[in-house]
Automatic annotation (TrEMBL), chains A, B:
<keyword id="KW-0812">Transmembrane</keyword>
<dbReference type="InterPro" id="IPR005135">
    <property type="entry name" value="Endo/exonuclease/phosphatase"/>
</dbReference>
<dbReference type="GO" id="GO:0006665">
    <property type="term" value="P:sphingolipid metabolic process"/>
</dbReference>
<dbReference type="GO" id="GO:0016020">
    <property type="term" value="C:membrane"/>
</dbReference>
<keyword id="KW-0746">Sphingolipid metabolism</keyword>
<dbReference type="Pfam" id="PF03372">
    <property type="entry name" value="Exo_endo_phos"/>
</dbReference>
<dbReference type="GO" id="GO:0004767">
    <property type="term" value="F:sphingomyelin phosphodiesterase activity"/>
</dbReference>
<protein>
    <recommendedName>
        <fullName>sphingomyelin phosphodiesterase</fullName>
        <ecNumber>3.1.4.12</ecNumber>
    </recommendedName>
</protein>
<feature type="domain" description="Endonuclease/exonuclease/phosphatase">
    <location>
        <begin position="24"/>
        <end position="270"/>
    </location>
</feature>
<keyword id="KW-0472">Membrane</keyword>
<comment type="pathway">
    <text>Lipid metabolism; sphingolipid metabolism.</text>
</comment>
<keyword id="KW-0378">Hydrolase</keyword>
<dbReference type="InterPro" id="IPR036691">
    <property type="entry name" value="Endo/exonu/phosph_ase_sf"/>
</dbReference>
<keyword id="KW-1133">Transmembrane helix</keyword>
<feature type="transmembrane region" description="Helical">
    <location>
        <begin position="326"/>
        <end position="347"/>
    </location>
</feature>
<comment type="similarity">
    <text>Belongs to the neutral sphingomyelinase family.</text>
</comment>
<comment type="pathway">
    <text>Sphingolipid metabolism.</text>
</comment>
Length: 404, 404
């Protein structure tokens, strides 16, 4: 049905890097982002790392005219940092928090405190299910301790999309996935959901080379981190798929390059991704496109499952060592209690230790006991979730193999 | 289309109360449950509070013949306690953890450690989306401090069902909701999702009076808790709805009463709920049945939102007082550090405090600081989630009011 009208949807996605007190020239940049969004008049804006609710409120006030509908997703101690602005009504929202998101004691990485999640908003434009999200950051590519966590997140995200997307005609995902295009997590997400990469599908592209969104030319990026990648890396994506009797095509994809027009600074340390999609109703429902690549998909799931297993073994080791530490601290405490009781009962003829050292040691043992118990509980939870994901992936593999 | 074949689905739901070391005669009861399930041959079995993976494994081995498909949902420190056994293949599973689930420091209530969640399994029978779940327990009906948490859970559950159920033809929910039939959480869940209560809809009922599932006659229940309810209470439910071109009718509902056949003990402290459903394909899709009761639904959402606001204010107070406590502890520590430095620098002519008391006080302040900071972070998270839920409910109310 070529005669059906086409809906042209312009989407803006940006990791705003708006961390209070930490991000450079934050307020200026947020103001700049707001001005540009007002001027450009997109249909849908997906923002990440808007950590301060104050920044969101400011943006909402400024954008009320051109984007009358918006939502801020609250979660974690600091927040999810996710928000959505839309020219079309937002009918419903849902927040899904990943089960695993780093370690609370890795204070310098802070992911745990952010409650990283995926924010889903249902709009009336199609209906369109749009997801804004961010996955766990990669701090060291060579020795990536968070890979299993990021894979669990990619898997949960894929499962979540599979289960929620039936309610929509079009699924649109924009966000900072913290993964390179060829990484196993991206392949898993794309393969398991059937989502297509706007960069690969776009008829026309304009922007940073290879669609990179974290580039050395940006004055806010950490140059030393990008040394192995002189062109930069692509970690921010717009992904999409049509569910029922619709087709989606990416007409154009752009990234920002360099400073925002009329200023000396870029919007953020990430480049923004802007996609123009054409959505059209088809005569008959489009069949599932998944089946054709089942074998390749099975390989990806197997690869991801191997990485999750590696993470599981590491988590088991940490659970064991923190448990052992807790037991040792408890034993020391009991020993000290016994000694103290003995002295009180007059069994010992004299006090063998100076009181102060005795007391300090007891407090130290108590502190270690509390900390090690906390760690043990945390890693127990981690083991459960990693094992649960391993199980689910195994079930997925079986389902893939049993397909005719 | 009266000629379409009817699928008869027999469902078994039970809160098994199988807590290692704590539940009375646990192993005997789990064995009994397994024997009965084998003998009765249900189509779908939804179990809660199977806390030990060992019990699940034993059940799986025993039931392998009659229920070849099963899944155990892992989450939290202890686990979710949820599992599913099915005569039909389980195609896919998903675990959704509620954002709020009690307080980690309420050790005697333990809900926080269980990672209460809803386990979703997709089967091929229809396709059927079956959910097994448990909400936060009610420990004191008169002064129910957990009501806001349970309402957030009911709301998240309802939102989750609305977003995932489009992929299915029939949604079936079985579990211990820890709410009486007329409680606001149940009305919210039923109203917002359109789920129907098998007890209210059943053509034929057999079992405890009023369908109660926690009855004083059960030898494992706490009689003092049930004093205000001489007949018992109904907190375990089977709820269902048809999504697309299907109809579901509840032909029969049963609860267990008293000891299991041939023994002197019941299966659990809860009674089991057994439903026989008739699922039939219709000629044309059934329209949404939701619209008719929009006004009543708006009232329920408003009531729930009020309760969530009450919880929000309490959480804000707790966040404030724990924050204040942390600041005071920090001040005390700084003061002590200053005093210690002063003495070291030789400013004080003599040591004003005994060393031991000084040291003890410092450790006490440090302990209070760590605890109060932890509490502050936790309540900050709680405030965010309660406020997020309030927002979502407000959005729902607006959508309800704007409907023609």
């Amino acid at each position: 049905m070529e005669g059906e009208p086409t809906l042209r949807l312009r989407v803006f996605d940006l990791n705003c890097w708006a961390i209070r007190y930490l991000s450079k020239r934050r307020q200026e940049r947020v103001r700049l982002i707001g001005d540009t969004l007002c001027r450009e008049g997109f249909d849908l804006v997906l923002l990440q790392e808007v950590w301060s609710e104050r920044d969101y409120s400011d943006l909402r006030v400024k954008l009320a005219g051109c984007y009358p509908f918006s939502h801020y997703f609250r979660s974690g101690v600091i927040g999810s940092g996710l928000c959505v602005f839309s020219r079309f009504p937002i009918l419903d929202t849902l927040l899904y928090q990943y089960s695993l998101n780093g370690y609370p004691y890795m204070l310098q990485h802070g992911d745990w405190f952010c409650g990283k999640s995926v924010g889903v908003s249902m709009g009336v434009t199609a209906p369109l299910l749009s997801l804004s999200l961010q996955l766990h950051a990669e701090y060291c590519r060579e020795k990536d301790a968070y890979l299993p966590h990021r894979l669990v997140q990619a898997w949960e995200l894929a499962q979540f999309i599979r289960h929620t997307s039936k309610a929509a005609d079009v699924v649109l995902l924009g966000g900072d996935l913290n993964m390179h295009p060829e990484d196993v997590g991206i392949r898993l997400l794309r393969g398991w959901t059937g989502l297509r990469d706007a960069f690969a599908e776009a008829r026309h592209f304009e922007g940073c080379k290879n669609g990179c969104t974290l580039v050395p030319d940006n004055c806010f990026t950490d140059k030393s981190e990008l040394l192995p990648f002189p062109l930069g890396i692509r970690i921010d994506y717009v992904l999409y798929k049509a569910i029922s009797s619709f087709t989606v095509k990416c007409e154009e994809l752009k990234t920002t390059t360099g400073p925002a027009p009329g200023t000396d600074i870029p919007f953020s340390d990430h480049e923004a991704v802007m996609a123009t999609l054409h959505i059209q109703r088809q005569g008959q429902p489009v069949g599932a496109t998944l089946g054709t690549a089942d074998l390749a998909l099975a390989d990806v799931v197997t690869e991801a499952r191997t990485e999750v297993s590696v993470g599981l073994r590491a988590a088991q080791r940490q659970r064991y060592s923190s448990g052992r530490m807790a037991v040792l601290a408890l034993l020391l405490l009991l020993l000290q209690a016994a000694a103290a009781l003995g002295i009180l009962a007059g069994l010992g003829t004299e006090q063998p230790f100076p009181k102060l050292s005795f007391c300090l040691l007891a407090f130290l043992a108590l502190g270690v006991l509390v900390l090690a118990t906390g760690l043990h509980l945390f890693h127990t939870m981690e083991v459960k979730i990693l094992r649960g994901t391993e199980d689910q992936m195994w079930m997925a593999l079986r389902a893939l193999q049993e397909r005719p």
